[in-house]
Design brief:
With 61 residues, this protein is mostly helical. It is built from 3 helices and no strands. It has one domain. The termini are far apart.
Length: 61
């Protein structure tokens, strides 16, 4: 059952969002922040600001 759930998330979610090594690094960093028990709203806010900065400087499309 767990494998089926992982397969349903892997194909549409992971493959459509992680397109480069930078995306994978980003996802791993956010996951690590969740493991440090930081508030989820803080992680979402920091990710949005960092994503805006990366897009502004042309590092990601």
């Amino acid at each position: 059952m767990v494998g089926l759930l992982l397969a349903t998330l892997y194909d549409p979610v992971f493959l459509s969002t992680v397109r480069s090594p930078l995306d994978l690094l980003w996802a791993a960093a956010v996951f690590a922040l969740l493991m440090f028990r930081l508030p989820p709203w803080l992680i979402v806010f920091a990710s949005a600001i960092a994503g805006l900065a990366l897009t502004t400087f042309g590092l990601i499309a």
